[in-house]
Amino acid sequence: xxxxxxxxxxxxxxxxxxxxxxxxxxxxxxxxxxxxxxxxxxxxxxxxxxxxxxxxxxxxx
Length: 61
What we know:
30% strand, 0% helix, two-stranded antiparallel ribbon, 61 residues, mainly beta, 4 strands, single chain
């Protein structure tokens, strides 16, 4: 199982033979915390959260 994450010249490369898909979500408020909803089929799976400098749509208002 090979996992590689590279950031070179502001370009991100992720490789993993077991990746099922890539999701993009906007983090939303939940009480005093935050959440990013994903489909139930990913319960128990390992996930990667990548924080970007750009503002999500929920914060643009």
